[in-house]
Amino acid sequence: MKALVTGIGGFVAPYLAEHLKGRGFEVFGADKSIKEDKNNFAVDLTDAKRVYEVIDKVKPDCVFHLAAISSVKLGDKFPELAFNVNVNGTKNIMEAVTKSKIDPKILITSTADVYGIPKKTPLTEEHPLNPISIYAKSKLEQEKIALAYFKNKNLKVIISRSFTHTGPKQHESFVCSDFAKQVAEIEKGKEPVIMVGNLDVERDFSDVRDIVKAYLLALQKCKPGEIYNICSGKAYSIEDIVKILVSFSKKKIEIRQEKERMRKNDIPILLGDCSKFKKATAWKPEIAFEDTLKDLLEYWRKNS
Fold first, then answer.
1. 49: which of 90, 141, 270, 304 is 20 to 30 A away, CA to CA?
2. For the residues 149-157, what does the mean pLDDT come to?
């Protein structure tokens, strides 16, 4: 079985690639800024011709589409790029699969941010969609494009609405990794103050190593044309995260809010219900959130 993983130079895709290899898949990667070899291809998803060349060459049995402008901050900073990569890039993959006359299963990784500010929690797939960020709006358009190819071209598209996930090697621009790096730097002599933004925001966190297991199960067991929440079903506030990370250190650390870190349109809570996904796959998260944070802190202790 040949699997093509887009975004192979990012955070989640390398974990997914290792998981797939461990289960006998031949894994091919695609990313804009990687060094090419026999299994990895330098691909700008907005270049339709190049996307077609790679997909026609690999002829994958399954596609895991993880490449994206993947944060609210980046979407706000580069709105045109967010839509170009997230929407047109996805369209180019769908077109390439169609033209190559292959019939892979395709996982599109969307986001819980498409729900916007919840009317009630936990969020099910039927909750009204009201994206409030450029990033979330681009991901909703991505979903629509993918479902259009399912309906009109019979592509075997499955969509995951992934809630927040973290773990070792995550970029420091994401909240858990940011705080873990700050703690590690304080342990090495930096002023014992963690700078934070809004402490009241709550998010449903999973470990990246659990998430990639879910992604494979999604392709193996979920129904094409359907959308599935993937989440832990438990929310933690930003304050919870900071306090947990600080508790792992012997240093006495002050928590200080910084105005520049406060977002204007933050969603107060994203808490998911993934009953639909669990029913289809029997998946459940195995790694406790506290253990995820411990591993993340250890990563930064070694790499900061």
1. 141
2. 98
Residue 113 exposure: Cα atoms within 13 Å on the Cβ side:
23
pTM value is: 0.96
Domain residue limits, the chain: 2-165+205-230, 171-203+235-270+287-303
Distance CA 5, CA 34 (A): 13
Residue 235 near residue 272, CB atoms below 8 Å:
no
| Per-residue three-class SS string for 85-141 | HHHHHHHHHHHHHHHHCCCCEEEEEEEHHHHCCCCCCCECCCCCCCCCCHHHHHHHH
Mean pLDDT, the chain, integer: 96
Pick the CATH number of 2-165+205-230 from 3.40.50.720, 3.40.50.300, 3.40.640.10, 3.30.750.24: 3.40.50.720
Let me know if domain 171-203+235-270+287-303 sits in CATH 3.80.30.20: no
Cβ contact 75:82 at 8 Å: yes
Answer for the pair 237, 266: CB distance below 8 angstroms, yes or no. no
